[in-house]
Amino acid sequence: MPNPRLDILGRPSDVQPHKRQDRMREGQRRSNSDDLVGAELPQDVAGPLYEALADFIRGKVYAHQWSTNSRIPSEHELMDAFGLSRGTVRRAIKVLVDEGLVIQEHGRGTFVSEGGLSHPSGVRPLSFAASLREQGKDFKTYVLCNQVMPAPLDITNCLQLPQGTPLLFLRRVRTVEGAPVLCQESWMNIVACPGLDEADYTRESAFDAVERCSGLRIVRSTMSYSARIAGSEHGAYLRCDKNAPVMTVNQLIRVEDGTPIERSVTWLPAGQAIVGDAVQSR
């Protein structure tokens, strides 16, 4: 089976417009249009009008007045209610889409999202592929880069290898129902784990490939988390605005004999969470 094709920005070219299959039927959805009667935009939002409109919609969702899966008012309804231009309304909605608060379905409208995916955090290494499977999510993996090249110094230091050691660099985007849910960039130790550069990463996760090629289990990951904006490059990969908030998860992954095997950074768009248990020491 050929690898999925991507356009120049790393976006899947064969993905159809995003549609949720498990949403409530059209007749069961509550309209929020009546909430616009007598409504006013927040007066305490400094900045352009689209930010005030985005804040108004956020307030309705955060207060649970506009519930999950419900349709928000149409562009025309928002334009008429607040005397705004179409461009202002569309920009406000795009901000909220990038935040993961609402989703757009072509020809159907804009809906309050069901909430983000969550991924486990704790004593075990974090496999995003395994996390998606456990949540019953049907995902696709698109490989944007798969190349053996000399690694940067900070990467070889992390993996305890000499400077300039050739490593496998992978950049992958995973999508659920056509929408990108993460971009993952990995430097993989092919010195300790030969054969990694021959795996088909559209079908096999990096964790599975490491364990298959090395014959060792992945047992440990040192993780750190950072809040960032997407930037132009990763905004293109994730199909969000360059100024959209994202979370990055950095992992240094080791197999059971203690060998560091992978250094990765995973970019998560808004609307996702890392969850786990914290235990107070006695």
Automatic annotation (TrEMBL):
Residues 1-38 are annotated as: Disordered. GO terms for biological process: negative regulation of DNA-templated transcription. This is Transcriptional regulator, GntR family. Keywords: DNA-binding, Transcription, Transcription regulation. Pfam families: GntR, UTRA. Gene3D superfamilies: Chorismate lyase-like, Winged helix-like DNA-binding domain superfamily/Winged helix DNA-binding domain. The lineage of its organism: Bacteria, Bacillati, Actinomycetota, Coriobacteriia, Coriobacteriales. PROSITE patterns: HTH_GNTR.
